[in-house]
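Lab meeting minutes (informal)
Scribe: AK
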Amino acid sequence: MERSLEALRKELNYEKTNNCVQCGYCLPVCPTYMTMGKETHSPRGRINLVKMAGEGKITDLSVLEDPINLCLGCRACETACPTGVEYGAILESAKAALTRRKTFSVPVKTLRNVLFKKVFPSKKAMKVLGNGLWFYQKSGVQKAMQKVGVLEKLPYHMGTFEAITPNVVSPKERSSLPNRINARGKRKYTAAFFTGCIMDAMFQRINRLSIELLAIAGCDVVIVENQTCCGALHAHSGEIEEARELAKRNIIAFEQEKVDFIVNNAGGCGAMLYEYDHLLSDEAEWHERAKQFRMKSKDISEVLDLCGGIPIEKGKAERVTYQRSCHLTNVQKVHKEPLKLIKAIPNVQLIEMNEAEMCCGSAGIYNVVNYEASMEILDKKMGNVKKTEATTIITTNPGCLLQMKLGIERENLSPQVRALHLIEYLAEAAGIS
């Protein structure tokens, strides 16, 4: 019994729960506590549940499922915590432990295996997905599906999300993305660009604009072959072993190039890349290589700022507001660079919203699997957005971008209000289409 309890403690990262002094500083920054008002849906409440499980006071781990699964994983509690509790590591371990013990139905298990093992890690599969989405949008099938109302009957509110899906690039444009691009003018740095999986399939235009902005700023840019999904969706879904394997594949791939930085343009992906050393901390050889990887990992806003910004052709006279990516802010600790880049655009008035660092409710696929909880958080966020009277909402993460687009539709603010990725906004100001 004692041996099995010790094994469970290790599995749950129990020792990290001892740093929590239950002070409550995390409560006012936790979106789910603020909207649900329950201790079990607060960081200290969730930590206490994991602690009780590690001490044998909770023997049925399914008790943890609802509190753990309803956590956004925004990590704002870590920023607020005075004792440095590693909440992300505790949450990740709890999710993995629950996933190992959960019996999924055959269809769900099959879907998870296909997505996590065959689709997200495969560049070929994501390319097929992107090209298929382009055909769906351009062939008339999308309009026909919307007209007959089939999409409204899809599970997980997929029809709602389908309506805000971005227009993807054509197969021809997708295949034209170069493997290398030289700096415009004097070279300042060499950057390896992380394309991602969802970003590459659905947001490749943002990837292309990112590469062009890096080149304009003075970077030689390399698209590393054999790179794969960052593993964030896997880790957030409890598939921790798959996440570790993807981390190793990326480390091997990026080690092949001598670069100053490994650059990403998605807050969630960047946070995962940034924490590869924590993910592989139990494997000595990989841990050291992951540390070297982490040291080079940068959000694109950091690199553009290091380069001195980008030349701006024009600035539209308008009010904008910035929706922070939780993982960019709370994990990568990138605060000032996106704001600095926005403020450098002439005629743009940046209006900070109230509770600017509060999560928007997207959180990977949280808004899909926990739709109602996500929408409650989004509605609160949009109330703060409306008070700024901004006509553009700028984000730094694809999930946040889609969530803001959904918020605009829910508040009937379209077309007078739009949502753009920071890269799209900078490219627009630089005269790049």
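Next up, CB showed the second protein from the same session:
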Amino acid sequence: MEKMEWIKLLNPDRLGQSGKNAQSSARSFFEQDYDRIIFSHPFRRLQDKTQVVPLPEEDFVHTRLTHSLEVSSVGRSLGKKVGEVITEKYPELKEAGFSAFDFGAIVAAASLSHDIGNPPFGHSGEDAISDFFEKSTIGKTIKAQVSEAEWKDLTNFEGNAQGFRLLNRPDNQGIKLTLSTLAAFTKYPRPSLISERDKSRRSQKKYGFFQSEKDIFTELAEAVGLLRLSDSEAIYSRHPLTFLVEAADDICYHIIDLEDGCRLGWVPFEQARDLLAEILGESYMPEKLEKTKGKNEKIGYLRALAINALIEQCVNIFKENEAEILSGQFDTALMDLVPSKKVLRDIIAVSVQKIYRSRLVLETEAVGHVVLEGLLSSFLEAAIAQKGKEDSGQKDLTVFRLLPEAYQEMITETGSFYEISMICIDYISGMTDRYAITLYRKLKGISLPG
């Protein structure tokens, strides 16, 4: 039976570069990945992008930035714990110089960047971009000029694929990550348009790269030895460490969204306490909790214990299924199999009812649709007008000049409606929530520049 090999999966090369580059004695290539992401502009913008609670004034509520940092911390723990087991099981890894710290560094870097492609206003921003192309007049114009696969990218916009595009854009060469980190980052190693989705495979629930990056993903998938699942389509198995990246994200949003909801008063303390206590099981000690002063401190204490418990549970599931993961037979979220899966479903039900469908969240999602659709309309019309497809008026020229110079140059150089659309999406999806609102108000004449 064909299977992936750890020695190949831990590939420190970068696209277009050989592994002969000198490695610092202080930092491995995988640790350098983490540092490159931390210092990048796209990562910095996450500080003003909605996680769940929109544009929070409270300093304890999570943004995409704090969420990403926490996911990365959990991911490092998961990676190191799994790495300790794998390096003992496969002595050739130690002989090649790999350690548990390399596993931790790969998962930490991939986790740190896991939301880097998300547009403003959370997942509703993805829906807004998709709806714009599907329903707008300019969308119908673009549809006639692109392939079926390209149209699927535009009308089913995916933040994971946008993240992969962002990490591999020619003007983001400072980020240029190792092949292993890029592969671990890709939770859904398939394009948007495939002949038939295998619903039993978690990795095919969504897609992980656009048509514009299909060749890049194919190259890295072959380089790290991912299993190809289709002879005719670019569908692959996940990199094994992707299951840990996904688990880190799942752990954080299950537990920390509940904590945020409790701190905001949307979820009663007693309800949040009991849910977290159920994860801890017999290790829950209410008498010790009573010694902690204040509800926020108590819920924070329980959150820490619950995260640690879920880390251990996920590591155990990974260890039990490692052979099936390498053969590509295992394709399930680790958190769907942990002993705490029932209480996790209860937590999601509470979060949906009391947090995700709160009036504040719904109002901001509605605003996000209006803002992103307005920005896309303005910039796409202006960009297409510059290609001579329509009469270019002064308004379009002025709006076009508001784009960064690099984007203007790329649009001028391409004749592809798909690429023009993707470049405009790059610009708008990279905006912070506040900047998107501010620019929209200016373009619509609601407020003046100041």
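CB comment: The CA atoms of residues 387 and 412 lie 7 Å apart.
No objections, moving on.
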